[in-house]
Amino acid sequence: MRAQFVLSEIGVGLRRNLTMTFAVIVSVALSLALFGGALLMSQQVNTMKDFWYDKVNVSIFLCNKNDATTSRSCAKGAVTDQQKHQIKADLEKMDVVETVHHESAEQAYKLYKKQYGDTGIAATITPDQMQESYRVKLKDPEKYQVVASAFAQRDGVHQVRDQRDILENLFSLMNGMRIAALCVMGLMLVIAMMLIVNTVRVSAFSRRRETGIMRLVGASSFYIQMPFIMEAAFAGLLGGAVACGFLLLGRYFLIDNGLALAEKMQLVNFIGWDAVLTKLPLVLAIGLLMPALAASIALRKYLKV
């Protein structure tokens, strides 16, 4: 009987404040969708880092004849055969090094022409202007500084470059987008909380006669407040369900179909469906608990029992 009464009161409250309940559902849905999207974007960045950092190399560029006159690090002249052999031997002795690949100036020139052959500057580049290099694959990409400190000041070495630097701008952009999404999510959560508080206050005011009678007949505070709390929780749960739908549709249309990024950007390791599905229970839990907590706090002020 009590459960039936509570459920009937929830239905009455939702019907009386239908417009504000709808606003709560929409605001909770948008804020939680942004929250889930920020979590997925963070996981996407980490996945891309793990994928690409495992494939990038440390490049040790060697001095050529042109560098001897233009670069301070190559002031002693172009790299000699003895220096090249010694650099390779020292690299192969290092515990952090997995493989060492030598790229000649001719190979570098062919690769450059293949990548930039259509540009105007490519016609002015000659093979003797290209630098020889050693492409070093590390067992742990984070150990770049070990190689850099050992070879940066070597005779015949022009510079040591970590190819991860090329990716850092992309990762910084994605992290910036994630932070922006979190900021908007925070604003939407504040708006949702204010709507919940106002909805509960209006609902409590419209049913002040019923709650007064319940108080006179000895109903407990928890029993009187429960319908209001469950109304907010139900609206929040609906908002969480809508947010889950947004996340699933976003994954489907952005990566699998629609934009089909997985097909167009095959070099990018996108997160799978399992990453999305594991976030849905968290989104639903927040959608259920956050409005219930906001309602219980609001009732202490607006429902004196």
TrEMBL record:
Domain FtsX extracellular: 56-160
Family: Belongs to the ABC-4 integral membrane protein family. FtsX subfamily.
Identification of the protein by name: Cell division protein FtsX
BP GO terms, sorted: cell division
Any Pfam family hit: FtsX
Cellular localisation: Cell membrane
Subcellular location, principal: membrane
Entry's transmembrane regions: 21-41, 179-200, 232-255, 275-299
Keyword flag Transmembrane: yes
Keyword Transmembrane among record annotations: yes
One Gene Ontology term, aspect cellular component: plasma membrane
InterPro entries: ABC3_permease_C, FtsX, FtsX_actino, FtsX_ECD
Residue stretches making up the ABC3 transporter permease C-terminal domain: 183-302
Keywords for this protein: Cell cycle, Cell division, Cell membrane, Membrane, Transmembrane, Transmembrane helix
Membrane topology: Multi-pass membrane protein
Physiological role: Part of the ABC transporter FtsEX involved in cellular division.
Domain of life: Bacteria
